[in-house]
Amino acid sequence: MAVRPFDPATQQMPFKALLDRVFRTRWGTWVAINVGQRIDPYLMRATRGRVRISFTAPTILLSHTGAKTGKRRTTPLLYFTDAANVVLIASKGGAPQHPAWYHNLKAHPEVEASTDGRPERYVAREADGAERERLWRLATKLYSGYEEYQARAINRRIPVIVLEPAKR
Predict the structure, then answer these.
(1) Which single residue of 26, 45, 116, 163 has CA 20 to 30 Å from 3?
(2) Do the beta carbons of residue 116 and residue 4 sit within 8 Å?
(3) Which fold has domain 17-165?
(4) 44: pLDDT strictly greater than 90
(5) Percent of the chain with pLDDT over 70
(6) End-to-end CA distance of the chain
(7) How far apart are CA 147 and CA 2, in angstroms?
C-alpha cells in the first residue's frame, strides 16, 4: 500500500486541536511551508513515512514535474483519501497565489505519491462543483484551518485536487 487510507469523516489526527492552533498561525504556516517541505521528504523516505515534521498529520510525498523547468520535484502535503483517490488542498497557507506544485500538476498531471516510500502512479485533476464542495467539507474536518486560509486568500478560491490511480 503506497498511500495509507485516511478518511476525515471517520478518523481524527492525534493532537488535532494542538496542530490546528499551531498551523493556523502565520508562524506555524511558515514553518510547515519553509521547514517541513524541505526536511519531510528526507525523513519520510528514510523512515518509510513514520517520522515527519508534522508528526501526527497524514502526510503524503507527491512527486511531480516542474511546469517550467521539467525537473522532478517532491513535495510533502497534508492529504486524505476518498475511496481509491487521494485528495490534496492547494492552500499555501492562504497566500495570494497558488502553490508551485498546483501549477506543476496542471501542466503535468501524471504524478507519483506515497506515504510509505513505495510510490504509486496517479493522475491529478481539479475537483469542481458538488464534488469540490463535498471534498472541501471533508478537508475542513481534517484541518479546520483551511477555512481561515480561504479567508486570507482574498482573490482566489483554494483548489481541491484529486489524484486518481493511473490505469495500468
Answers:
(1) 26
(2) yes
(3) Pnp Oxidase; Chain A (2.30.110)
(4) no
(5) 71
(6) 16
(7) 29
